[in-house]
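ok trying this again, last paste got cut off
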Amino acid sequence: MLKRLIIGVFGLWLTTLSVPSRAADEAVEIIPDVVYGHKYGMALTMDVLKPREGANGAGVLFMVSGGWFSAWAPPENTVSWNSDLLDKGFTVFMVRHGSSPKFVIPEVIEDVRRSVRFIRANAERFGVDPERLGVTGGSAGGHLSLILGTTADPGNPTAPDPIDRVSDRVAAVVAFYPPTDLRPWVGTDSEYNKNFPALQFDPDKAKDCSPLLQVTSDDPPTLLIHGDKDELVPLTHSEQIHRVFEENKVVSRLMIIEGAAHGFSGDDARRASRAKVEWFMKTLLKHEPPAPPPTEKRAGQRPPR
């Protein structure tokens, strides 16, 4: 049941992408199948969507992931899905990772880390500021977005691969209904572990793969968006990490969509989209961090590493 639900949500997302707008396509330069790495003789790829006019120099990585399953779609079909960001001048990177069931979460995390390093190393090529990169995604994509926000490193200066010498730090995060603590799901008899092969890895690594347990005070500004009727990834996942952000004085906001389950549609989707764009405009287009709305909690920073 869990597997059908999350794959169904991911399928709905792909369906949403399937009706491209000719006018939108003409306004966007598409660089398809950019190779950012290799594994097992296969290429790791992303599609780059660039506004032809009015680019603001900031980039947003979209984690193409549902249930840690990552699928290809014609890049022309993704323009309308990202029109909210493209219209404001953001360059969007549609990042695909090594997909479940072949790969498990620790391997997936290494892929998306590399995608950030690759984009930063090639920032001039893509016309973006390497210090103004944000990341977003929903469900598993939200989990990966939070992992990038909470576990960045400056790169390994002695690595033989020059990409590995580059930082994977992002400047802002927007995570939709993300799992934040994987420990109850890994190495257990839970339905999650049974239905999601990506969770079938060494339980000793579950802590490192749980953003809730990785928060420190230097984390980037983070927006969490979650429905209060989500039965697949309960709201408590976002509430708990928001509380830890708050304790550590990381700039953060928790936006709760009343009555929404796992995945948004209609007015809920439009509200969430507006909030996402506003967050990236505040965090990536200005040097100062955004002030959280007075009616909402301020999320914390993590303890220094």
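PB: full thing came through this time. The two ends are 40 Å apart (CA to CA).
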